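Pilot study result, target chain (410 residues):
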Amino acid sequence: MKTNNPNKKFRFIPYRKHDLLEMIVQQGRLSGQENDFRHFYTMLSSVFHFEFHQVMESLKDAYVGINPDADTREYNNTEQLTEHNFVELLGGVLQKANYNRITEAELNQALTESSLFKIRLQVDFDDFAEVLLFCRGESLREETLTSWFGLRSKTIEFINYDRVVVYLRYNDEPQQVQSSTDFKAGSAMLKLFQNVPKADLEMLFPNTQVRMRTIDKLLIGVPAIVSGGIVITTKLGASLILLSSLFGYWLGLSSQPVELNKASIMVLLAGLGALGVYLWKQFSSFKNRKLRFMQTLTQNLYFKNLDNNAGVFYRLVNDAEEEECKEALLAYYILLISPQPLSRAELDKQVEDWMLTHWQCEIDFEIDDALAKLQALKLLNIENEKLSAISISEGMRALDSRWDDYFCPE
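Predicted structure:
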């Protein structure tokens, strides 16, 4: 079961921008200007798409030196491709896509919490020079866990992240990364996951190692001790007596020689064979249990992984473009249908109320971001700290002028 976290509202608007357009148009508040508003939306969307295309090109240029999957030849360019480093650009895109940074304190808390997958994981952070995690969409979920062969069940409540971005940069001379066969010193790894429990963030790291929990050690150790005692008393008794007699004679602790005939040798070999079978069974039990844990981890990651490396920021740029366009569109529409100019606080509340009342969606609207975009696009009038939108026809002319300016030499 999934519910919103009652203690936290999120900036992410959980609708596609085209769906938001239809929600606005079909509400019937545009007084016959529906077609003009659709055209306005197309122009607004195109402006954001062009501007984020430039962001994408900057990200690609900044990622060249740390891309672990590059399949193109390197060119020793004497000119700097971009004035920003990759992490700065990525942080800006994540901010615009309404992702939140997972702080070091939150990560440390997650590492100490019990896993939902009944495994214990360990991460060696010394392998990394830089570790950054971001999340978007947080909800409280319930899961029923079973134990004692299904005889006992327990329902737990946990925090789940809808999306998690992981950025890792390896040290130039790190420890051996056992799980990363394509590892390159100094390279960076970028991954995007979905539906990640907060308590299991450590499973997202490439050098995660499975460790036995105390209960798992007991489940292996106690039967091993019991069966070991049985093997010693039933299978190894005669062999141990024979071996102790031999060592006692060889060490001078006994004066009575031990005769090694065919029967005694067979007894000795049978005992050693039983010991070997016992040790092999215990080793196999340990390995099989660890393999089951690894299979559980692999299966969960298989369904949670959405994208890797360069594919991640292609996806994030699209998300950022969508969020920026949705925020501008919502703010413009609410101002357009308002009978009088609104203050910044009134606009913020009316947008949030519109989403909650009509679509049962509680958001923390990015009012400053939305107003900054409308001002930059000249779609906004401000008088005595009161805000109003220019008409749709004037808005289309402003957007058309901005589009033309993109291709005019400075």
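One observation from the pilot: The chain has a mean pLDDT of 80. A full batch analysis is planned for the follow-on phase.
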